[in-house]
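During the reporting period the student researcher (J.K.) took over the structure-prediction task from the postdoctoral fellow and processed the backlog of single-chain submissions. One of the processed entries is reproduced below for the supervisory committee.
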Amino acid sequence: ILLDSLLQETAMLDLDRRVLLSAGLSLGLGLVSFEVYRRRSLIYKINSQIQSRLSVGPGTKITLVNTYADWENISDAIVQDVSAFPFIGLDTEWVSKKGSAGLVSMLQLATYSGHCVLIRLCLLDKIPSSLRNILVDPDIIKVGVAVLDDGEKLLVDHNLEVAGCMDLRHLAVRQESLPGKLGLQSLALQYLSVELDKDWRLRAGNWEAETLTIQQINYAANDALVAVNILWVLMKELIHSGTLSKLHTFSWDQRRLVIACRDVVDQFTDVKFTNREWKAEQRRESGDRKSVV
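J.K. obtained the following structure tokens:
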């Protein structure tokens, strides 16, 4: 009888171990399957691409456009990028003379893929129509700090109409981690952990020089690149508002992802940012802290 009891207990223990082993294997296979599913998702691929190019560095694709032909050589690639993810970083540079701003010398664009395009307007005989089409298309969102001011200056200086502009500060002031300052340099440090070189000698450099220095090229490219990357980080936080919503995004195709991103920025598109928004958010946060205390 004792032997039979021991054998039964041993059999039960073996069964328990087999059940646990089977459950463990099922859980492991489930986790592996989910990770494969996650890595195949569009949102994961875009995020990985952006995270690998948060700022200008070795391997960053920077194209200098000095002539009409230079733009034509890369226009198809830019159109392909904005068709896949219609959000681009935009900035401008010009030379100030005796305290007055000159005409825009350079227009900088950056796509989600990390392609930075520096268009030297001071050298172009005419503006390519495909570039005009990108700038005027309201469905291609151009982002930066004070980007509407850039658009206005491009219109005045070069008759370049820019539509679909969204100031990053609209989204920044609505984050839980409200930055202390709202310049591009502060936003890049806050959301990308990227330190931008804002040496005044670069900012005030000769953007109409026949040949730009490496420092000028990297400086100009970075301003556009970090802008589109900051946008992605801020948008992703808003569309990943909870665990369930985060899991749901892994099933999104390109159309659904773009719709979700547009939902985030539409109310701020072509709307100028004012410091009143920032101060209002600061007062709200201060009030929330006092109510908790």
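The committee noted the following: The mean pLDDT is 85.
J.K. will present the remaining backlog at the next meeting.
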